[in-house]
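Key result, reporting period 2: structure in, sequence out.
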């Protein structure tokens, strides 16, 4: 999913958010506003290869397969995770561009 707001966003301190930008940023933050999804992102960011398949994430966090799939899908749909086919597995990694731009939104101007 494209994140147009993040392509044009500067720090929140630069100017008030336009209505559409506020909606898009709220959607992105909503995807992160879950403790399991935050743990998934943190796990991926700290993994030596910065990528894991769903089964590895499931085992590391002790979640069920449906719950893991649900959270991975939400994060990917929000544009926060990238998927990569690895044989019969799908590996997930944090979309670094999205996170760098998200970090910029909250930087002091």
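The corresponding designed sequence is given below.
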């Amino acid at each position: 999913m494209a994140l147009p707001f993040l392509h044009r966003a500067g720090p929140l301190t630069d100017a008030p958010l336009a209505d559409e930008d506020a909606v898009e940023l709220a959607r992105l933050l909503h995807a992160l506003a879950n403790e399991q999804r935050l743990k998934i992102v943190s796990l991926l960011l700290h993994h030596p290869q910065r990528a894991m398949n769903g089964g590895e994430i499931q085992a590391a966090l002790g979640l069920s397969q449906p719950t893991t799939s649900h959270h991975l899908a939400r994060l990917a749909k929000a544009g926060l995770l990238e998927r990569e086919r690895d044989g019969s597995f799908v590996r997930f990694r944090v979309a670094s561009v999205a996170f760098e731009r998200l970090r910029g939104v909250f930087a002091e101007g």
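The chain has a mean pLDDT of 86. The CA atoms of residues 3 and 79 lie 7 Å apart. This case is discussed further under Risks and Mitigation.
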